[in-house]
C-alpha cells in the first residue's frame, strides 16, 4: 500500500483553480518530488496532504487516513516544514524545539537534532537573530522533531547560499537513510534531479508526468552528443559504421558524434581499438528542464530569488 495516495485532487480559492486534477502515490522510504513553476499548485497539494486544507474534490489518504477527518492521527506520522513567519520572534531555538517535541508521543532528542542540522551553538539564540539559512534549518528540525514517518519539505533551499544548499541536500539524504519518506516541493530542477527517486511534474494544477528524473529525461531525449578531439587522425566511417551512431560531423579539429543507446561506450571502445584517445571529451544530454519544456510546451519560469 502506498504511504500517500492522492486521487483527482481539486482545490479552488474563490475563482482561482489552484489544483485542477492531481493524482499520484508515494511509496514508503522514497524521496518524492513535486516540481513545477511558481503558482503550479504544489503548496496547495501538500497542504491538503497535511490536512491544512480541505479538498474541493478528489481524495487524499495518508497511511489510509483522511488528513482532514483524522487530523490528529495524521499529525503523529507526518511532519511538515513551517513557513518561517509562523514562529514568534523572541522564541529561542531550544524553546521552539522543546515546544514542538512536546506535541509528540516519542520525539527525537532536540540536542541531537540541532547537532545534525549544524545548529548546536544556536540553542539559546532567539529566532529573530538567526540568519536565513539558520531559520531554514530550524524549520527542517521542527518538521523532524516528532520522529515522523513522513516529512513534507516545501521550498527547503529557497534563499540559501550554494554551500548551505549542498549541506541541506546531504541532510535530506541522511533523513531518508533513517527510513523517513520525504515529499519535497521544489521549483529547482537541479535539486529535484539530485535528490528525488521519483517526481511529479506539475503545471497549471495538473500532473504533466510522473517518473524518475532519468526516466523523465529519457522520454524527451533519445539522442546524446559526444564532442572530442581525436589524438590521431581517424576515418569518420569507423564511427558512422557503429549501430548506435546516427551522425558524425567535424568542427575544426573536433568530432561531433550524435547517437542513441550506450553511445559513449560504443565510441570510446572503438576509438581505443584504433589506438585513438578522445581528448577534450564533452557529452551533452537533455536536462530535466528540457523534459519540462517538451511535456508542457512552456518554458520553466525561473523564480525570483
Ligand atoms: P505553488 O506552490 O506551486 O507556487 P500554490 O499552491 O501556492 O502554488 O498556488 C496555486 C495557485 O493558487 C496560484 O495561482 C496562487 O496564486 C493561488 N493561491 C494559493 N494560495 C492561495 C490563497 N490562500 N488564496 C487565494 N489564492 C491562492
Automatic annotation (TrEMBL):
The keyword Ribosomal protein is annotated on this UniProt entry: no
InterPro entries (alphabetical): AAA+_ATPase (IPR003593), ABC_transporter-like_ATP-bd (IPR003439), ABC_transporter-like_CS (IPR017871), ABC_transporter_ATP-binding (IPR050763), P-loop_NTPase (IPR027417)
Protein known as: Multidrug ABC transporter ATP-binding protein
Keywords: Antibiotic resistance, ATP-binding, Cell membrane, Membrane, Nucleotide-binding, Translocase, Transport
One annotated Gene Ontology cellular component of this protein: plasma membrane
Domain ABC transporter: from-to ranges: 4-229
Gene Ontology MF annotations: ATP binding; ATP hydrolysis activity
Topology term for the membrane: Peripheral membrane protein
Record has ATP-binding as a keyword: yes
Subcellular location: Cell membrane
PANTHER family listed in its UniProt record: ABC TRANSPORTER ATP-BINDING PROTEIN
GO biological process, any: response to antibiotic
CDD domains: ABC_DR_subfamily_A
Organism this protein belongs to: Jiangella anatolica
PROSITE patterns recorded: ABC_TRANSPORTER_1, ABC_TRANSPORTER_2
SUPFAM superfamilies per UniProt: P-loop containing nucleoside triphosphate hydrolases
Amino acid at each position: 500500500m502506498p504511504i500517500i495516495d492522492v486521487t483527482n485532487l481539486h482545490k479552488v480559492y474563490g475563482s482561482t483553480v489552484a489544483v485542477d486534477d492531481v493524482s499520484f502515490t508515494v511509496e514508503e522510504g522514497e524521496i518524492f518530488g513535486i516540481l513545477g513553476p511558481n503558482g503550479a499548485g504544489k503548496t496547495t497539494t501538500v497542504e491538503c496532504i497535511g490536512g491544512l486544507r480541505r479538498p474541493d474534490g478528489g481524495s487524499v489518504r495518508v497511511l489510509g487516513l483522511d488528513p482532514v477527518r483524522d487530523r490528529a492521527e495524521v499529525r503523529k506520522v507526518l511532519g511538515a516544514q513551517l513557513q518561517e513567519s509562523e514562529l514568534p520572534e523572541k522564541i529561542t531555538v531550544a524553546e521552539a524545539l522543546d515546544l514542538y517535541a512536546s506535541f509528540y508521543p516519542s520525539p527525537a532528542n532536540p540536542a541531537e537534532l540541532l547537532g545534525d542540522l549544524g545548529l548546536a551553538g544556536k540553542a539559546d539564540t532567539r529566532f529573530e537573530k538567526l540568519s536565513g539559512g539558520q531559520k531554514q534549518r530550524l524549520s527542517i528540525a521542527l518538521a523532524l522533531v516528532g520522529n515522523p514517518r513522513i516529512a513534507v519539505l516545501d521550498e527547503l533551499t529557497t534563499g540559501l547560499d550554494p554551500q548551505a544548499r549542498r549541506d541541506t541536500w546531504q541532510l535530506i539524504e541522511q533523513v531518508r537513510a533513517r527510513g523517513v519518506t520525504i515529499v519535497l516541493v521544489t521549483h529547482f530542477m537541479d535539486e529535484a534531479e539530485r535528490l528525488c527517486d521519483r517526481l511529479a511534474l506539475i503545471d497549471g494544477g495538473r500532473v504533466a508526468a510522473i517518473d524518475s528524473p532519468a526516466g523523465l529525461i529519457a522520454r524527451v531525449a533519445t539522442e546524446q552528443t559526444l564532442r572530442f578531439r581525436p589524438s590521431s587522425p581517424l576515418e569518420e566511417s569507423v564511427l558512422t559504421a557503429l549501430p548506435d551512431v546516427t551522425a558524425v560531423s567535424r568542427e575544426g579539429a573536433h568530432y561531433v558524434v550524435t547517437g542513441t543507446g550506450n553511445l559513449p561506450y560504443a565510441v570510446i571502445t572503438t576509438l581505443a581499438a584504433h589506438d585513438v584517445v578522445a581528448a577534450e571529451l564533452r557529452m551533452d544530454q537533455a536536462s530535466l528542464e528540457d523534459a519540462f519544456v517538451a511535456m508542457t510546451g512552456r518554458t520553466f519560469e525561473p523564480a525570483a530569488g
